[in-house]
Amino acid sequence: ADSLYVSEYFSQSAQKLSFYSWYGNAKLFHFHVPEDTVLLRWLLQASRGKGPECTSMEITVHFRHGAPPVINPLGTRFPANATVRPSYNISITLSSAVQNTTFVNVTTPAAGDWFIAAHLPQAAGRIEVKGFSTPCPYMFQADMFVLRLTDMPVLEPGVPMPHTVVSPAKPLHVKVFVPKHAAAMRFQLSSCVTSEQRACTVRVLLGSITLPQSFQRSLTCTGSTNCSLALESPPWEKWLQIMVESLGTANASVSVEMLASFTVCRPGSTSSFLNFISPNQSQSAPHRPGAAGSSALAAAEAPRNTSGQQSSSCLQSQPVVREDLDVVSVRYRLLNGPSVPVSSLSPTLLLLNLNTGMDSGGSLVVSLLLNKTSVSLANATVAACVSAASPVLSLNATQNCSTAFSQGYPLSVSTSSAEAMLIVLYPQTDDWFLSLQLLCPRGQGGCASAEGRVSVFAYLTPCFNDCGPYGQCSLLRRHGFLYAGCSCKAGWGGWSCTDDSKAQTVGTQNLATLLLTLSNLMFLPAIAVAVYRFYLVEASVYTYTMFFSTFYHACDQPGVAVLCIMDYDTLQYCDFLGSVVSIWVTILCMARLKKILKYVLFVLGTLLIAMSLQLDRRGVWNMMGPCLFALLIMVTAWVHHGAKRRHCYPSSWKRWVFYLLPGITLAFIAISVYAFMETNENYYYTHSIWHVLVACSVAFLLPPRDKHKKPWAWPQKLTCRYQICQNDREELYAVT
């Protein structure tokens, strides 16, 4: 009946999309699908602005169950030993329409965490000055509708259960609970007849849909004969959803009988956590209550092995301690030491607990090291499988680490290749298992008694290898969910900044550092001109700017040629402050104001500029505002001087031709390069050109010294034993 279904609606706020250059540009949405959900519908709404800068755009949306989607829009390489499966994605196009609404339906979805990631195409790499251009806003919002069955029938193991499928439009949903240590499951459907007592045809779907890959099993049964399906390694301690739908006529109901049975695996005896806290083990394994969480398959939970022989059990579990180190940072420790025994009779099983809900934002690293001296057979191989939800209990060459509803990750070590590593990017939230078993060549005797020892190192890290020397590991947050991503530099790319296909060479990095730092030495001519013309305050400001710009760019380099004499943020602030104040004092100096008024404006303007830079360091008006106000003061002062003298000011045509016009031209070229030509690829030489042009324009624009000021005469000023005093009376008229 319809009353058995409950619809629920979940929504999250819209996010502004960004062009993609690294994972931090993708906008993440995190939803939780409740149990017994039979239908999931995503409502995806994309919109753009209405301005002329808004053009047609394609939005890519990725979906994944259990963890954030692993995406690679740029086609870069992943780190070695990392296993990547392509994400499920769709494209939404915004062309002439301002808004686009798309629906995505998922029947019988898996319960738990679902993630959506959306982004725009690859970034163009152009460096845009904030305020010069208005980027088009592209917004994206994801809403989730679920249809949940309130009283889903439970299929008890070993008990036949008759049910009726009312019509093809209303399929039958039941669920069965998979116990722990279940090695196999067998589903059987029988007595399938219609209401008209005719042979029926039904389709049975076992399991739930997960993205990007779905391992839902399908079974078609025709007639009254029994049909069955066997599943190896079903997910432990989870509800398995089963849907039966009729393929017959619309008016006929179908009666069926279902039976589910399990084959339970019995773990062998192994040391438990009771040994860990016993006094006899206190020296070798000190107990720290509360420091680590237990995540082992304890032997005490399993039925007692009455025979006492390893051969009677189907697996040997090893106790593992989960030790939380930091955010998305976990280390797994084996209680019996780093090495575990591996035999050919039954697999050795380790449980890696990743079901806290906060572990799927990092990278799971599993490393194996075979002790060559422990292997009694020369050609033997230790096969390993890392799988989620359920372990692989039969590790042979043909199974390829597959379980009932998932595909694991294979590993192998041998005497010829004793090391193996696996990196699982964004592992899904679940219990993960590591299965190890010794495999012998065909026809080789003594395999039953053979044994080896393998050292296992497993940990969860935010970024593998901390993104390497050319990357920065950033911790990202979406509401309460934390995940990590690598931001690469110096042309390196990839998930962990290991793709060097476009990387800058060390010589290029050194050249970039030298250009960006040594180009600031072009302020030396401006400093010399200012000192020669007695503009000592201005010369001090230029010296300050040259110093901090040099060391800021030495610290700002993405590669190995980096030198930071103090905190990066401090260097950046001082560089921005010196640049704006240099422009401020230069234009005010050109206005030829009274000294007291000029210095008051120097100090007051510097304080206001410092405040505005603290509010928004990269805002365009932090530079344009002081420039325009200073230009207004300069034009007003020049008009006043011209009106007082009754001719154009400055009156000398040589001043205009040889100083002002070249200086203004250099300044306009510098602003054009800074605002419209800089990209990530050409930054090191276009910004160096900016340094050179600005410094040269300052040297041209500085006004000449006052006529009553004599040039520097060191023999007269530094005489022996006495000083010649001179009464310098300030003239109140302007000198050109």
From TrEMBL:
It is a multi-pass membrane protein. Keywords: Cell membrane, Disulfide bond, EGF-like domain, Membrane, Transmembrane, Transmembrane helix. Its main location: membrane. It is found in: Cell membrane. Signal peptide: none annotated. The keyword Disulfide bond applies. It holds the Pfam family DUF3522. Residues 280-317 are annotated as: Disordered. The chain crosses the membrane at residues 511-536, 596-615, 621-640, 656-677, 683-702. Disulfide bonds join 463-473, 488-497. Residues 290-317 have a biased composition (Low complexity). Belongs to the TMEM8 family. This is TMM8A factor. The gene is Tmem8a.
